[in-house]
Amino acid sequence: MNDMERVLIGSSVRQDPRVLEYFLDSLRDLKARNFAVDYMFVDDNDDARSSLLLLNFRPLRSSVVIVPCPEDREPYVRDEIHHHWNEKLVWRVARNKNLILDYGRRHRYDYVLLVDADLVLHPETLARLVATGKDIVAEIFWTRWRPGTEEGPQVWLRDHYTTYRCGREEKLTEEEKMRRVREFLDMLRRPGVYRVGGLGACTLFTLKALRKGVSFDEIYNLSFVGEDRHLCIRAAALGFELFVDTHFPAYHIYRESDLEGVPAYLASFRKMGVEACRQLITSTLRGVLEELESADFRRRMDARRYRNNFTARGWAALRRRRARRGVLRKKKILRAEVVSTELAFDDGLDRCRVVAELNVKGSERGGRVGKKLRVRLDTINAGEWLIDHYEAEEGGLPTPSPVIAFNHNGFTRVVRPGPQKITLAMLVRNEAGRYLPMVLAHAARYVDEAVILDDASTDNTVEVCRAVLKDIPLFIYSNPSPGFDNEVGLRKQLWELVARTSPEWILSLDADEMFEDRVVSVIRHLVNQSHVDVYGFRIFDFWDMDHYREDDLWNAHLRYSPLLVRYQPDFPYVWRETPLHCGRLPKNITLLPTALSDLRVKHFGWAREEDRLQKYERYMRADPAGRYGSLAQYRSILDPAPNLKRWRENENA
Description:
Number of helices: 16
CATH topology of the largest domain: Spore Coat Polysaccharide Biosynthesis Protein SpsA, Chain A
Number of domains: 3
CATH superfamily of the largest domain: Spore Coat Polysaccharide Biosynthesis Protein SpsA, Chain A
CATH architecture of the largest domain: Alpha-Beta Complex
Distance between the termini: 44 Å
Number of strands: 29
CATH class of the largest domain: Alpha Beta
Shape: elongated
Strand content: 25-35%
Largest sheet: 10 strands, mixed
Helix content: 25-40%
Structural class: alpha/beta
Radius of gyration: 31 Å
C-alpha cells in the first residue's frame, strides 16, 4: 500500500439527500487502480438525512474525515430556474474547499480531487484525470444554466465566463463571436485534454500545485463573482496552466428535474467508456507503433523512450520483436503509417485486444520499397492503457492510405495522415566544384528522396548527385541544351517532374543553399501535421563562409520565403511568368494554409568574389533596365566594403 499514490477526494456538502445519494454512489464506484483513496467532507447540510448519508459512507480500505460546519448558515435557495448565491455563501464554500486543500497538503496526498456534491461521476474519472499528468485539471460536465438554453460547460477561456478566443486588440463582430463560441464548444465535445482559462466543480490538484499556494482565497482587487474565478486567476499567476479532460463527462444534477436523467446517464457508462477508451488507445498507439516500426539508418531511435507505454511483459515481447529484426542495415529508410485498427474490449473495460494494420514505405539501398505489417497487441487499463503483449507479421503490398479531405478557398485540400515523405527538388547546372557536395550531403540527413533537374551541365554535376545521394531514391533528368535564360520554364519543368513521383512534401532548395543543422531534428515536426501546407523560412545571403550581408538592399533574412510545401494535386498553381526572378515555387502557393518557421537557410551563392562577379555580369546582361529586379541591388553586388554580420549556428534553438 505504501507504494501506491495517495488521493484525497473532498467535497463541501449542503445537498438534497436524493442528489447526495447518487453522488456518494458514484464515489464508491470510482475505479481506483493503483491508488490509495481517502475522503474528506465538510458537512454544511441543513437536512439531517444528508448528514446521515455522510456518516454511513464507509468505503472499504479508505478513511473518511467529516468536518462539521458552523451553524450560522445563510439560506441557500435552489429552484427550477437558478441557484441563488450571495457573497456570504460563496466565501463560506471557499473556506470549506480550502480546508480540504490544506488537509491534503499537510498530509502529503499526491492528489486532491475536489468535487461538487451535485455531480455523478463516471467510474473512470479519477484514473483518467491522474493519467493526464496535469497539475490542475477538471473533468467536464454540461449544464443548462437557464431553462430552454443550450447546454454549456463548467470551463471557459477567459474573464468571468468568456467561451470564445479573442486577442486583446481584436475587434469581433457578433457573428464572429458566435462562430468562435461554437468552435470552442464543438472542441469540448470531442474526447481530449484542452487548455482553458477557467474551471471548477470537479478538479484534480497535484501536491505540487498545493505546495505552491493554490487556494480559493479571495483576491481583494478582483470583482469577479465566484470562488472558482479567484482560484483560477491565482493558479495562473503562480505559473500553472489549467486543463479540462473531456473523455468521461460527469452528470450535473443542477435542478430537481435533472434527477430523471441519472438512470440514463448510468446506463450510458458502457457506451461512453468504450468510445473514450477507443479514442485513448488509438491516439496513443498510433504514435508509438509508427515510431517503433519505422527505421532510418541516419538516426538512432531509442525505443526506451516508450518504456512507460508497456508492462514488463509487453516490453519483453517488444524487445524480442526488435531482436528478430536484427541490426538496422545501412541505407534503409522506412516510415510506418497506421492505416486501420480493430479493438475488442472485455466487459469491464479493463483489457483490449488491438489489431493494427500499418503501411511501411521508404527506401533500401536507394530503391523504393513498400509492405504491409499487421501488429497484434494486448493492452490493459491501469489508469492509462499499457501494452501487455506485442507481436507483428509482415505480408502483402501496402493498402491505399486513408485521406482526409478539406474544403479550402474553393478547392479540395488533401492530407494523408501518418509520417510524411519529404522530396528534395533542386535545379542544378555546373555545380560540382562549388557547394553542391556539401549541400546534398546535408540534405541527405533528413529528406526521403530527391528529384534533380540538370540544366545541361558540362562538368560532373550529375555524377556528384548520384554519389552523394546513393542511399535514397533519386531521379535525375538532364536537359539536352541549357534553358537558364528562361528561368520560369526550368522551374515549371522541375515542378512537373516532382509531381510525377507522387510527392507528399516538396522542399525546394537551390544548389548553394542549406538549412542550419537543427533542421534534422525539427523538420519532421513541421510536416507530420494536418493543418499547415506551406512553410516560409528566412534566407541569409552569405558574403563569406562565416558572415552574411545586411543593409537596405540585402535583407532577405528579414522576411520569409516559402520553400516547403505539401503537394496538393487539385490546387490551381499559377507561376510568375518572367525569365528572371520568377520564384522557385508557384506565386499563389501561400493561398494554401501557411505558417512561418524559425529555421534559417544559409545561401552561399554570394560567398566567393568570383561568384559575385559572375552573377553581376549575368544580371546586368539579362536585365539591363532592372525590369525583373533592382538595378541598385545589381550594382551593389560589387560594393567593396558591405555591412556583414557573423553567423551563429542554431541561434534560435
